[in-house]
Design a protein that fits this description.
Helices cover 68% and strands 9% of the residues. With 187 residues, the protein is mainly α.
Length: 187
């Protein structure tokens, strides 16, 4: 095996692993988000929610760098990234991606946008629980609530913040899928 073939095979395995991690992250984020619509106590799911957020950076940054590398030409390499015209465009990133995945991304983006702002109107403050008392912390004032309202507040809060990773994982998957198709076309 020649060195270029070895580099290509290693890159391909890395992209496949990154794609799988994005798929797992998408599944985890979607599952957590779906759980917030059920009448269950999600207050103990802080660690998985944080893990889903950290995973976005693990997947998103390398995916973005791979796509930027593909869109860059030899002429562009001498120009600073912030001075390049059209250094990164969404059309370049998603070229060759399947239509169903692009549509899914659009639907997820609309859902996250609407859900985030709708949740802001419903949630008056940070739901907290201290010394057996449930309350909303509204800019330092404590508004006492019952346990059921507290659980609703925690679910709403978690729903707001588990939606965003869904979009980023989907976009990373789209970029990686698109990149793998472009790599096959060049070979």
């Amino acid at each position: 095996m020649r060195q270029t073939e070895l580099v290509q095979a290693t890159r391909s395995h890395g992209e496949t692993l990154l794609y799988r991690v994005a798929a797992i992250g998408l599944f985890a984020a979607a599952t957590l988000n779906l759980m917030t619509w059920l009448p269950v106590d999600v207050s103990g799911l802080t660690v998985p929610t944080v893990a889903v957020f950290v995973g976005v950076f693990v997947v998103w940054i390398p995916s973005l760098l791979l796509v930027q590398g593909r869109s860059r030409t030899r002429r562009d390499s001498t120009v600073a990234w912030y001075r390049r015209r059209n250094s990164w465009q969404i059309s370049t990133a998603l070229r060759g991606a399947p239509r169903w995945l692009s549509v899914t991304l659009g639907v997820a983006a609309v859902y996250v946008f609407v859900n985030f702002f709708a949740s802001l109107t419903v949630l008056p403050g940070q739901p907290e629980y201290s010394n057996g008392v449930c309350f909303f912390n509204v800019h330092g004032s404590h508004v006492i609530i019952d346990h059921q309202r507290y659980l609703e507040g925690v679910r709403t809060q978690m729903r707001m913040f588990t939606g965003h990773p869904i979009v980023f994982y989907l976009l990373a998957m789209l970029m990686l899928h698109s990149r793998s198709g472009a790599t096959r076309e060049r070979a």
